[in-house]
Write a structure and sequence with these properties.
Layout lengths: L1 E4 L2 E6 L8 E3 L4 E3 L3 E3 L5 E4 L5 H12 L3 E6 L2 H10 L4 E4 L5 H7 L8 E4 L3 E4 L7 H29 L3 E5 L13 H21 L4 E5 L1 E3 L15 H12 L10 E4 L8
Parallel strand pairs: 6-7, 6-9, 7-8, 9-11, 11-12
Antiparallel strand pairs: 1-10, 2-13, 2-14, 3-4, 4-5
Helix pairs in contact: 1-6, 4-5
Length: 263
């Protein structure tokens, strides 16, 4: 059994042809000077922001004008992030603990954007799956998502405003993958949950969009013949969070280089 932070080929629930390279400056986010993405006046909550994709998302949101609150279980990683971007507010919390998470976020203020990125992975054969591993994976990968989503939605409903939620999921949620039985189940649960969130919250002006990823896939199975970089996923997430994606909700955007299309 191998335990690691989740990093898969990303699904952002929807499909679009990506033809622009994102160039960012301190004040705005521009795509070839044709499309600006700004989050001025918005507050974004990003989980799993200590490293990898979550770290990249937090930094880019800050560049685009958002007030960012970064969550991670590792306080040291968060402090390094704040050292790079002093404007980012950091909170160390174990998302597998339901009540402690609610207490830690009780006074965070208003949230407009949520990125559920935190997750863990355990690669193990069916014969090696244990109850403890099931509980660990679902506690962080699924229960943590539900908890943060509930916290943010309650805030949005109280304020009677719209907002956006993006989840980092995995192509493991939609295709079989060896030794990923429980991990795949947690990501499938996230995708199904977000569809329900979209149905319930859509009429109230809130959007919910998942987003999966996987560096464990063989490069030969990727049509574009390269693994996704953190920036590839970050670009997709920023688009989905922005008003440019105002008609996208409850669907998945694969950031997978064509992997699913080749199956």
């Amino acid at each position: 059994m191998i335990a690691s932070r989740s990093f898969d080929i990303a699904l952002c629930n929807c499909t679009r042809i990506r033809s622009h390279y994102c160039q960012f400056n301190r004040d705005t986010c521009k795509v070839n000077n044709e499309m600006e993405i700004q989050f001025n006046g918005k507050t974004a909550l990003v989980s799993g922001a200590g490293k990898g994709i979550g770290n990249g998302i937090a930094k880019r949101l800050a560049m685009c004008g958002a007030q960012v609150i970064a969550l991670d279980v590792c306080k040291e990683s968060l402090e390094l992030l704040k050292g790079e971007v002093p404007s980012i507010r950091i909170i160390a919390v174990d998302l597998s603990k339901w009540s402690e998470t609610k207490q830690a976020l009780e006074r965070i203020g208003n949230i407009d954007l949520l990125v559920n990125n935190a997750g863990i992975a355990m690669w193990e054969s069916l014969a090696d799956i244990s109850e403890d591993h099931i509980d660990q994976l679902f506690a962080i990968n699924f229960k943590g998502v539900v908890n943060l989503t509930q916290i943010v939605i309650e805030n949005l409903l109280k304020r009677k405003v719209g907002g956006s939620i993006v989840n980092i999921s995995s192509i493991a949620a939609v295709c079989g993958s060896e030794r990923r039985g429980i991990y795949s189940a947690t990501k499938a649960a996230v995708d199904a949950f977000m569809k329900v969130v979209a149905v319930e919250m859509g009429p109230k002006g809130r959007r919910a969009v998942p987003n999966p990823q996987s560096r464990k896939s063989l490069e030969a199975g990727i049509l574009l013949r390269r693994f996704a970089e953190v920036s590839d996923v970050v670009d997709a997430v920023l688009f989905l969070l922005s008003d440019k994606a105002s008609m996208i909700t409850g669907t998945c955007l694969p950031v997978d280089g064509g992997t699913l299309a080749a199956l």
